[in-house]
Amino acid sequence: MIQKGVEIPNTFRMKVKADCFVEYDSEETLADIDFDTLPKPLFHIGSGSNLLFTGDFHGTILHSGIKSVDTSSVVDGIVEATVGSGVVFDDLCEWAAVQGLWGLENLSHIPGEVGASAVQNIGAYGVEVKDVISTIRCYDILERVFVEISADECRYGYRDSIFKHRPAKERYIVTAVTFRLSTVAQPRLDYGHLRSAVETACGVNSSKENTHGTGLTPALIRQVVTEIRKGKLPEPEEIGSAGSFFKNPVVDQSVYDSILKSRQAEFGAEATVPHYPAGENLVKIPAAWLIEQCGWKGYIHGGAAVYEKQPLVLINHSGHALPSDILELESLIIDSVHSRFGILLSPEVDHL
Ligand code: EPU
Questions:
Q1: For 125-171, how does the pLDDT look when each residue is reduced to its tens digit (9 = 90+)?
Q2: Is the CB of 298 within 6 Å of ligand 1?
Q3: Where do the domains of the chain lie?
Q4: Which fold does the domain 240-351 belong to in CATH?
Q5: How far is Cα 69 from Cα 320, in angstroms, rounded to an integer?
Q6: How far apart are CA 221 and CA 201, in angstroms?
């Protein structure tokens, strides 16, 4: 279906239009599209949950409505589910939890669709979607054929894959993703307070010694993760946002050491700086912490604001924020974190 001058769906709730919007509901209808006649550039979206449109889009927005789900039989405790790129990602997580299949439960309640999840390598609570992806089926716009790309070939990184960069970005359209889900319990509860939250919620012994995950189910972990997210992150139906606006920066150990030193000089030897190992001589420092230290939590700028409960999230506070309100706030935050800590934050949200 080709539409002209329609509003582009986006969870930031920016009122922006595309010259042309094309939605297809099967691989056959995608293959029938005459790309040569569409206004350029082409840009493929999911539910627009990780995008900031900085104005109307002069080109063609593509969207997948492919909603198929095909599952294999169980082999060695593994079920392969091949899921259409237009399926809502959390519907997939719910389906897996109801089936008792492990692998997606920590990724519950993330907005967006299956195709975008594989492009962006979404992650939460110690799991990235790449951990459970085996292959990605794509339409190759240049050769006009469907291809299967293995997860290894996607060069997955932190919120990154080949699909976010040229040439793959301009060449492939994801039509389906195959996930490897497990019938055997494999709870991953090491992130933050997840383990204790699970214990509190259900009284099940979720300690590391409970290696078989006895008493735990993916549905239960899904429920706990969903509650945590609801408590920290704005619900897209209520407040416009694109989730985490910035990436958590990875810095040299020496940068972390000097931040810690100056903090201890100011607040005493007990002072700490939150951080996680991120490879040899590298640490990840939560951007939320850096932004909060610079005093931005709850700050309102025009129609935009820094979310009070999680300063990594910029919101459409008034409901009528302009793209420029968000862009200005972004610059103010980047500048202040840079001048205070010497760390350059980079956005996680794609700007168009
Ligand atoms: N923190 C603060 N102040 C706050 C909130 C957090 O200082 O108000 C610090 C704390 O030290 C906390 C740390 O930030 O321990 C980490 O916070 P949190 O667990 O909320 O996670 P995050 O690093 O801020 C990342 C992802 C989220 C994901 C969570 C949970 C990125 C950019 N964001 O956020 O993903 O849900 O971990 O795994 O990696 C998203 O990508 O849109 C997203 C929401």
A1: 999 999 999 999 999 999 999 999 999 999 999 999 999 999 999 99
A2: no
A3: 2-64, 69-231, 240-351
A4: 3.90.78
A5: 37
A6: 9
